[in-house]
Design a protein that fits this description.
231 residues, alpha/beta, Rossmann fold, 5-stranded parallel β-sheet
Length: 231
């Protein structure tokens, strides 16, 4: 590693601004990249009677965990399975009829490619989110969603930055489209968020909080006002 640069505050602010601009352009370009791959993949998830299994390696895996959590909280049963662990037993979590959402910017993740034959034998629908439409994973997918970006925000164009931002946004777009198609409402959201303020507002009723039975103070029909006040 080269010697550390002297800290340059203006340079840091310029790099931050460049990052915001590059990632904003990446997000804005996503809409034009979507088409049948997005809608067909969404339909597969909507019609799925099993679960949506999200997979990804490295930074794509971290994004995948968030996507799975967002799907699960908005009406689409989903969870994350690590592709490397899938090769060592966790593939047992996947069942025929599930939809697998595999996330890989390059589409060449060895760990994902290694389990594609096994996924096919199980009988899942394979949806791939990738930046490379001609990649190995894309060629084996039932549906391909494009998360392609023109460049990373990293000055070296190496570290996953704009590409993972695009993946995250595409996952959010999926979740929003799915909850709309399901007719998902505030009450449904509250049922999966009982610990939040919305859950408390919509799910907690007076009967859940009030005392009942012998614990409920009461005044008999023969009691006088003076005796009640004296207590």
């Amino acid at each position: 590693m080269n010697a550390t640069r002297t800290f340059d505050a203006p340079r840091a602010l310029r790099l931050a601004a460049d990052t915001f601009e590059i990632e904003a352009r990446a997000l804005l370009s996503l809409a034009a990249r979507q088409g049948a791959g997005f809608t067909d993949g969404l339909r597969a998830m909507l019609d799925c009677r099993g679960r949506v299994i999200v997979m990804g390696m490295g930074k794509s895996g971290h994004v995948g965990r968030k996507i799975a959590a967002t799907l699960a909280s908005t009406g689409t049963p989903a969870f994350f399975v690590h592709p490397a662990e899938a090769s060592h037993g966790d593939l047992g979590m996947v069942m025929g009829g599930d939809v697998v959402l595999a996330i890989s910017n390059s589409g060449e993740s060895d760990e994902l490619a290694a389990i594609v034959p096994a996924l096919r034998r199980i009988g899942v629908t394979l949806v791939v989110m990738t930046g490379k439409a001609d990649s190995t994973l894309a060629r084996h997918a039932d549906h391909v969603m494009s998360s392609a970006v023109d460049q990373e925000a990293c000055p070296l164009n190496l570290a996953p930055t704009a590409s993972t931002t695009a993946q995250m946004a595409l996952g959010d777009a999926l979740a929003v489209a799915l909850l709309d198609a399901r007719g998902f409402h505030e009450e449904d959201f509250a049922r999966s968020h009982p610990g939040g303020s919305l859950g408390r507002k919509l799910l907690v009723h007076v009967r859940d909080l009030m005392r009942g039975g012998e614990a409920l103070p009461s005044v008999g029909p023969g009691a006088s006002l003076s005796k009640c006040c004296a207590r």
